[in-house]
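Q&A log
Question type: sequence-to-structure
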Amino acid sequence: MTGQPGGFWRRLAANIIDGVIVGIAGLIIGLIVIYVFGVEPASAPEEGLNVGVDFANNSVSLLYSLALPVLWSGYTVGKKALGIRIVKKDGSNVGIGTMLMRVVVSGIVYLFTLGIGVIVSIFMVAIRKDKRAIHDFIAGTQVTTSLPPAKEKTY
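Response status: OK
Response body:
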């Protein structure tokens, strides 16, 4: 890998940026879904509005986390803003299988460990020299400051 590992604070700031983007997009899509399907938020504020917005947020979050790094050389908007990206351990770009492992499988691990895995991952990124978390080990990835390889121009 060329470049340095993406450190704790950069990764945290990138996740905050991504969370704000996903939250706003999910809210807008959720409200559109509620409007289209005719759910009256006033008649069932705890069920209609929350279910629609939660479903939209979760869908947008999953799609954003899985697809964007595959399509954009390991970047999300937050990671691009902070100059870090996700790559495979060998430095190559991630694919959909890698991102499924990183997002879905590690999410299941974090769920089964009742969040303890998340806490361990935070310490791993903060303390380890290579800054890899549990989800990085599961997927064979790392977060780095290296730039993606230049694409050849075809004329």
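Response note: The longest helix spans residues 8-37.
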